[in-house]
Design goal:
Elements lengths: L1 E6 L13 H11 L2 E3 L2 E4 L11 H16 L1 H11 L5 E8 L7 E5 L12 H8 L2 E5 L23 E6 L2 E2 L22 H6 L5 E4 L15 E6 L4 H9 L3 E4 L5 E6 L2 E2 L3 E3 L3 E8 L4 E8 L2 E7 L10 E11 L5 E10 L2 E8 L24 E7 L2 E8 L11 E9 L4 E6 L2 E6 H6 L2 E4 L6 E5 L3 E2 L4 E8 L6 E10 L4 E10 L1
Parallel strand pairs: 1-2, 2-4, 3-4, 7-9, 14-31
Antiparallel strand pairs: 1-10, 4-5, 5-6, 7-8, 10-11, 11-31, 12-13, 12-15, 15-29, 16-17, 16-30, 18-23, 18-27, 18-28, 19-22, 19-24, 20-23, 21-22, 24-25, 26-27, 30-31
């Protein structure tokens, strides 16, 4: 199986979001394997229009009608974007106070659009389709999930993380702080699993400004044989998925060699896993029936100084709210570049607001490019804006994997500035620089991460069934607050 990365739930100006569909597809192609641009389509039990709800009701109605008016052309543009290198899914979203919000996905380019009363009715309308519940943690009856009405056959995966926050459990990192309200214990992922439902985990951004895959807002990892619509969709329906907040943490999790999402029967269970982080590890936690049973503590990770592979992260942004352009490069001397990842972040919008306005087409029509000039040089270009607050980053980053030893030299060029250090030096400290004299944009070269601090293995045995069907899952936390939530393996006694 290969791991493919994508965003199954995000928005742009085809409904009440911002940014053009064409630009959203270009941003997605720049750093994702697959994507669905999900227009807002309906809200069968929407609020009554009163003075206090007029703004919300009106922008929803206008957005729904806009999608209906242009559905044929929008659907065609998404179909035409599908290729051998980038996969698109068709989809749109239903709001619901009763059932909770869902987005419906299919690989059918003739997906119909018609007002329905429930996610189940939508799935039946669309044929070979699934309904993915999202931001499930809101209050029941207030657009949080309704576990009493959940239909497992329609929803093989659940969105556990997005810009709204994390719904894994009551104490999960990333609480809900949107104006829709706080996270409710009754509507967590763990509550659904304890009720006996069997589903996998995905993340997606729920970005509303035409930037699918915006860093830090959520991604779906899918384990599939090929990068095709059919292969990816089959893998999603088989629950071979996991969610990450942003960093592309590699996870291979098995019970008796059955991979994530599987359902097996066994009394004795050997739980194994291999994980590769993108930053220093905080912890890896194995859960059985929602209870932690084994922990790998990142504090104990070794730091073997043998030659090998290192991860170098260059982060950039800061400054004020105006758009700032970066032309950057990473040059390697006495070694080579084994791979790289881009972690580009778009300007953040979660939903329309009566207090704010945005460029409806041009927002996030920004530069997001990276390419290897040679095995020794990575070139990249990106635009950033300043952080919204000290707790809301808008920085972007590139991560370079370097093959070499402690004598290998790394040179980072950022616009008119550059800095050179050996791997030995970068193992000891990071480096920061400002682009101008005062309160300007800046960049940071993080400490180098050697292989012993980003590769980990899990091996744990359990021979005590607790329920008719036990479920095991793993969560991986990094020191930079990036997480992975790995879909369960379900084991019948």
């Amino acid at each position: 199986m290969n791991i493919y990365w994508g965003d199954l739930h995000n928005h742009c100006g085809i409904t009440y979001g911002f940014g053009s569909l064409e630009n959203a597809l270009e941003r997605a192609k720049s750093q994702l394997d697959f994507c669905s641009i999900t227009g807002h389509a309906m809200w069968p039990d929407m609020y009554e229009e009163r003075p206090e709800t007029a703004f919300v009701v009106n922008f929803h109605k206008a957005g729904f009608q806009k999608l209906k008016d242009h559905w044929e052309e929008d659907r065609k543009k998404i179909a035409d974007a599908n290729s051998q290198t980038f996969v698109t899914f068709q989809g749109y979203e239903m709001h619901s106070s009763r059932y909770g919000d869902h987005h419906v996905l299919t690989i059918d380019d003739h997906m119909p659009l018609k007002d329905c009363q429930s996610p189940d009715e939508l799935v039946k309308l669309c044929g070979d389709a699934i309904a993915v519940p999202h931001h499930i943690g809101y209050t029941p009856g207030y657009r949080g999930i309704n576990w009493d009405a959940f239909i497992n056959a329609n929803s093989p995966v659940v969105e556990v993380y997005s810009k709204h926050g994390c719904a894994m459990d009551e104490e999960a990192d990333y609480p809900y702080y949107h104006n829709m309200g706080p996270r409710d214990s009754r509507n967590t992922v763990m509550e659904g699993l304890r009720r006996g439902y069997k589903f996998g985990f995905v993340g997606s951004t729920d970005h509303h400004a035409g930037f699918p895959g915006s860093y830090g807002d959520g991604l779906a990892a899918v384990l599939a044989e090929k990068k095709t619509r059919e292969s990816l969709f089959a893998a999603i329906k088989a629950r071979r998925t996991y969610a990450v907040t942003g960093d592309r943490i590699l996870c291979d999790f098995r019970v008796n060699d059955a991979i994530m999402g599987s359902e097996i029967t066994a009394a004795n269970r050997r739980i194994t896993g291999r994980f590769e982080t993108e930053y220093a590890l905080d912890k890896i936690v194995l859960y059985k029936n929602g209870r932690p049973v084994h922990v790998i503590n990142g504090q104990w990770a070794g730091e073997n100084r043998k030659p090998g592979r290192y991860k170098i992260r260059v982060e950039f942004g800061w400054g004020n709210s105006s758009l700032y352009h970066w032309d950057g490069a990473v040059d390697i001397e006495g070694g080579s570049i084994a791979g790289y990842r881009t972690y580009f972040r778009g300007q953040s919008v979660l939903a329309p607001s009566a207090e704010e306005s945005y460029d409806e087409d041009g927002i996030n029509d920004i530069c997001t490019e990276a390419s290897l000039e040679s095995e020794n040089t990575l070139l990249f270009s990106c635009d950033t804006v300043g952080n919204k607050s000290t707790l809301h980053p808008s920085t972007s980053a590139v991560l370079v994997e370097v093959e070499g030893d402690e004598r290998t030299k790394v040179t980072v060029r950022m616009n008119h500035k550059s800095y050179t250090a050996s791997i030995s030096q970068l193992l000891e400290y990071g480096y920061t620089a400002h682009m101008e004299y005062y309160h300007s944009q800046a960049f940071k070269i993080h400490r180098a991460l050697p292989r012993d601090r980003f590769t980990f293995e899990l091996d744990w045995t359990d021979g005590v069934p607790e329920k008719d069907c036990d479920f095991y899952h793993v969560e991986v936390a990094q020191k930079n607050h990036q997480w992975a939530y790995v879909s369960p393996v379900f084991v019948n006694a």
